[in-house]
Specification:
- The protein is 27% helix and 31% strand.
- The protein is α+β, with helices and mostly antiparallel strands.
- The chain folds into two domains: 6-235, Rossmann fold (3-Layer(aba) Sandwich), CATH 3.40.50; 240-354, Nucleic acid-binding proteins (OB fold (Dihydrolipoamide Acetyltransferase, E2P), Beta Barrel).
- Helix 2 crosses helix 3 (109-122).
- The longest helix has 18 residues, at 168-185.
């Protein structure tokens, strides 16, 4: 399969006075699994439908495989889209649903039979070819919708929250199957989701959108460890984001967390992941802990505890500021309770300064 790129250049899309996409530019590489991540109303589905040809931008350019396609109809773009609802024909069998696009294109019978058989084998549904959609599970219906899209051999695969109707266990299984299939086919894929776990577990790269603006583009690791701003930090994984002005008013020793870069003093937010902080009892801190180099300790009170399986997440209040701290389980680990007085330990290397 020919792997193609997609470029958005200064795309603006709006409905009346409502701006949906604002001067958006984005590069999607050939053959990559790319995720569009953002809250409801961020513009991610509008961008996906724009690439498919269902939405039309007022200004900017859209390139697929190096060709400007803004003036092309959806069927001319060789783009396949799987919708959230699957949109299967209820009166047609699995085979006929998958074959529908080829029938519309008047593909010869022998070629059609070969293509449908091949793609049903790829998604492991050949044995169910003559069942109706109502006789299938949610995961099987999702695979039928995927097969129907792929059988016409699109250049680009667009997925609009295709797993949102499945339960959690099946979502995990299906996203693994989806990624495996994408790797085998090598097709450039754009996956829209509001679920950060889905995006981070599947995407080669991802873009975080807010109110029609791309906030950051990069690998899941880049966005998790080095968020560009407080919005990305809060949206990709759980992040404690604390206003520097609030912290300065509450704790005089916060500045010890500053790195050697004096420019960071102008940052608006201090941020750190819950698992990067350490909790110890405030009244019985051992000398070895107190003297640990490059570590700042801030006083706090435990508000609540939430068991999460791999760890316990504690909500801790520092003066008027509330943060989360994750602590793994183990016989040597203290179990904290509400109203316990603790000290929260942080190192400069574990802190990000955001604007």
């Amino acid at each position: 399969m020919n792997k193609v790129s997609i470029q958005c250049r200064n795309i603006c899309l709006g409905y009346g006075a409502t701006e949906v996409l604002k001067n958006l530019s984005l590069d999607i590489h050939p053959g990559e699994f790319f995720a569009l991540l953002g809250p409801s109303g961020s513009g991610k589905s509008s961008l996906l439908r724009l690439i498919a040809g269902f939405n039309h931008h007022q200004s900017g350019q859209l390139f697929i495989d190096g060709k400007e396609v803004s003036g092309q109809a959806p069927w001319e773009r060789q783009v396949g889209m799987v919708f959230q609802s699957y949109a299967l024909w209820p009166h047609l069998s699995v085979w006929d649903n998958v074959a529908f696009g080829l029938v519309e294109r008047k593909v010869e019978r022998d070629i059609l039979k070969s293509k449908v058989s091949a793609i049903l084998s790829q998604v492991e549904l050949l044995d169910l070819a003559y069942r109706k959609p109502s006789q299938l599970s949610g995961g099987q219906q999702q695979r039928v919708a995927l097969a129907r899209t792929l059988v016409v051999e699109p250049k680009v695969l667009l997925l609009d929250e295709p797993l949102s109707n499945l339960d959690k266990t099946l979502r995990i299984q299906m996203r693994q199957e989806l990624l495996s299939l994408q790797r085998r086919l090598g097709i450039t894929t754009i996956f829209v989701t509001h679920d950060q776990e889905e995006a981070m577990s599947t995407a080669d790269r991802m873009a975080v959108l807010e109110k029609g603006v791309v906030q950051q583009v990069g690998s899941p690791e880049d966005l998790y460890h080095s968020p560009a701003n407080s919005f990305v930090a809060n949206f990709v994984g759980t992040m404690n984001v604390v206003s520097v002005s609030e912290l300065n008013q509450s704790h005089a020793n916060w500045s010890a967390l500053q790195s050697d870069n004096q420019g960071e003093i102008a940052s608006k937010f201090l941020s750190f992941r819950p698992h990067d902080a350490q909790l110890v009892a405030a009244e019985s801190m051992p000398t070895s802990v107190l003297k640990e180099p490059m570590q700042t300790w801030l006083p706090g009170i435990v508000l609540s505890a939430e068991f999460m399986g791999h760890a316990t997440r504690y909500k801790v209040r520092m003066s008027d500021i509330e943060i989360f701290v994750d602590q793994s389980h183990g016989p040597e680990k203290t179990k904290w309770h509400p109203n316990d007085r603790v000290s929260i330990g942080l190192k400069p290397a574990q802190v990000r300064w955001l604007y």
